[in-house]
């Protein structure tokens, strides 16, 4: 069975690397064409596009459909010659003169359906690519089905292609954000997982539940660890370089780290015999300059970040709106319908503002609208029309030069206007949520949670019960209580009971309180991170107060939307909404990453914590079969079994952080901000990307067991 990976550059984002691999797959494993960004796509029409010569059909299943959905559009598929993409298990007509690319998961059900297609001769040729390695047993099953049906000769005549392992079993909704494809339930009673859509997962399918539930057997834990390591191996292969691996000890992160280390070492050992490797050559010296670092962490290292209320554009969207695989769905109450918007890296406004605080996003919308109006005014002034939509009515003979310039700019202006309208609608929906739930007050309280007392929290919860508007939902109040409980050094039994009492009065159901009670158990057995104290390293705490000038964004957004809303709805919406500048503190995951990648800037506390981390080098003694010289090269000083080495502080420019048990947008934004300030390239991901509500549900189910 063949392996396929394209050569990648270190400067590319993980999303770009995955996109290139997918385009190569769709281009029959030839170098992929260049995909033009959304902002420049229309301005470059007709400049250098040449249609592909091979048209083909793409066959997908539910999991691989989601892999493509986050990075490729329909137009991108057409650019590489894919005229039709269909589900594997759907009814499909025969197209005997068209080649077919199968990009599916390696399951027995899929193998049997592929054998049926081969037997029927549906397509001219068959190119089989699997999202993760195809087990030998399934490969033999495919061969036996083909031989049994007597179609081997027909397949040979039909140019049966290689079977390729693509190592793409993860999704990348943002340039440096990723999550593994979800687990497939083993029992028929459970619905199958649909790609990376966490909302379609039951809580007992999430890694955090599987690894922490008392009912989980040792065999189930081993299977889950192997699944996570296999998925992470796909990410590392797409990354293209063999990293050093660091992780804390005595938890699930260490188990994943050791399993992944073994997988990489086995591949490197096999590569010395075959001469074929999935990884690009890198600097194998003792310094970190030539190689990146992979930091594998356990979710229990910081639960607060998964529950707390965010204030950045992307964290608010993920928390307040319906977001799946980069697509946001917003309800339109006046029309009683829903509208969807795709937030991709080709969306220049999203790429620039996703990690910014929401008030700043409002200012950016105003700035972009002003630029749009100026550009539109320039066109209308030069052509003599009153509106850009009237350009088509120009007299071609008398305005040839102006018409040419207008036609060149008009598509780009139209695309910009549609994009800004989309973000305006998203901002309006977020404003409604902020106003209705009092998210600004919740955020400011949680930002200063380390300075809050139990009496202040109890009084705040009581005040919510007397308010008509804004009034946080019962779940919002539960999240606030959880954040306080995890952040406080000590909370007495009486105070804990008082918190539960106030939450019950607020409308929190008994089954929802199980999440709070589970955290009580957790805190009894482990030390929780305190977000207010996580301000080490290069970060400068700025507090949670109002920053001068930041309030302008609210008024700007209101002015631009007033004419779109009737009865003065927006003015009422904006009144009373507070504006806060988030403090520039490092969350625990970012603080640990700083200590491992830039130890000279980290605090002594962080360095002491990470000095005990496991240190694995998959390349250490990777080529012992090359003779005495190779053995000496592999046996580096301090090397132990399976490449384990004595921990040492090293500096890295490139890194990846993976959280076993789930990732969140709050950590993604915080880590990205640190990486930008420190001039480093860092990818971030987890077994799943969980919104706060889903994570609370997982905690609740654990508390009920």
Detailed description of the structure:
It is a single chain. The chain is of the alpha/beta class and 705 residues long. The protein contains 27 helices and 16 strands. The radius of gyration is 27 Å and the shape is globular. 43% of the residues are buried.
Provide tags for this entry.
6-stranded parallel β-sheet, globular, 7-stranded mixed β-sheet, single chain, 705 residues, 16 strands, alpha/beta
Topology summary:
Layout: E1 2-3, H1 14-26, H2 38-41, E2 56-60, H3 62-69, H4 74-79, E3 82-87, E4 100-104, H5 108-120, E5 126-130, H6 136-149, H7 152-157, E6 163-165, E7 170-174, E8 177-180, H8 207-212, H9 218-239, E9 244-247, H10 252-274, E10 293-298, H11 304-307, H12 313-320, E11 322-324, E12 327-332, E13 337-342, H13 348-353, H14 358-383, H15 400-437, H16 439-447, H17 454-466, H18 474-487, H19 493-505, H20 510-525, H21 552-562, H22 569-574, H23 588-597, H24 604-610, E14 614-616, H25 628-634, E15 654-660, H26 665-677, E16 681-686, H27 692-704
Parallel strand pairs: 1-6, 2-3, 2-4, 4-5, 5-6, 8-16, 9-10, 10-15, 15-16
Antiparallel strand pairs: 7-8, 9-14, 11-12, 12-13
